């Protein structure tokens, strides 16, 4: 497959969505002729967004971890077949807010479904598709949950089901992501996301600039407002 597949991962309130938007702007300036797609998981197609709605709303314990895993993978199968794979075949850059590493961490390491079963599911439903580069936006559990709470209190969004799983769960999520980043150090870049969006943006730009060997200085493409 051609194209470039970038994923952003991290716990609640790590700022992935903001950084995904900024990355689109930066890469769009660096490669004006290239198609760039920003998408998210769970979601990214009409059917996958309907599955997302079930997953992210309602009480924290409404699904078994196994049900959660199957729904995440079902949404991903739709998303890959209908959006990601066709885009990569057109040589686009795909920037995805969460991907399979979230399943390994949330359903696997935090909810204790064995990773081998999740890998088998990913192979079965998603042909084992793996990002070329994964940014892990790392922030403490306290700071992340605080940011997520401010966001959900100040908006009408009811997508707080995962936030409500509690800080012990989210501590496992953070540890889980850091352990995956060590295991797959060839594609993971860990970014300190505790600072302002501009500070995080600078780390992400420097890393992608090195990875893609972009020659313009990382700061030379203006940052866009969120
Ligand atoms: P978001 O708030 O980052 O858009 O993601 C929604 C929630 O879904 C987030 O709390 C993490 C969770 N999630 C999983 O548990 N497993 C997955 O595979 C994915 C993609 C998301």
Please describe what this structure looks like.
Residues 222-226 have low confidence and may be disordered. The protein has 226 residues and is of the alpha/beta class. α3 (65-89) packs antiparallel against α4 and α4 (100-110) packs antiparallel against α5. It is globular. Helices cover 53% and strands 12% of the residues. The chain has a 5-stranded parallel β-sheet, with helices on both faces. The two termini are 31 Å apart. It is built from 8 helices and 5 strands; from the N terminus they run βαβααβααβααβα. It has a single domain (4-215), classed as P-loop containing nucleotide triphosphate hydrolases (Rossmann fold), CATH 3.40.50. The structure holds thymidine-5'-phosphate. The site of thymidine-5'-phosphate has 12 residues, from α4. Residues 12, 40-42, 56, 72, 98, 102-103, 106-107, 162 line the site of thymidine-5'-phosphate.
Sum up the structure in keywords.
alpha/beta; five-stranded parallel beta sheet; 8 helices; binds thymidine-5'-phosphate; globular; Rossmann fold
Q: Count of helices?
A: 8
Distance between the termini: 31 Å
Order of helices and strands: EHEHHEHHEHHEH
Q: What's the CATH class, please?
A: Alpha Beta
Q: Which ligands are bound?
A: thymidine-5'-phosphate
- Give the quaternary arrangement of the chains: single chain
- What's the CATH topology name? Rossmann fold
Annotated CATH architecture = 3-Layer(aba) Sandwich
Biggest sheet descriptor: 5 strands, parallel
From the alpha carbons, calculate the radius of gyration and give it in angstroms. Answer: 17 Å
CATH superfamily: P-loop containing nucleotide triphosphate hydrolases
What is the strand arrangement across the widest sheet? Answer: 2-3-1-4-5
Stretches with pLDDT under 50, minimum 5 residues? 222-226
The structure class reads: alpha/beta
**What percent of residues are in strands?**
5-15%
- Whole-number mean pLDDT: 94
Query: What's the number of domains?
Result: 1
Could you tell me the number of beta strands?
5
Helical content class:
40-55%
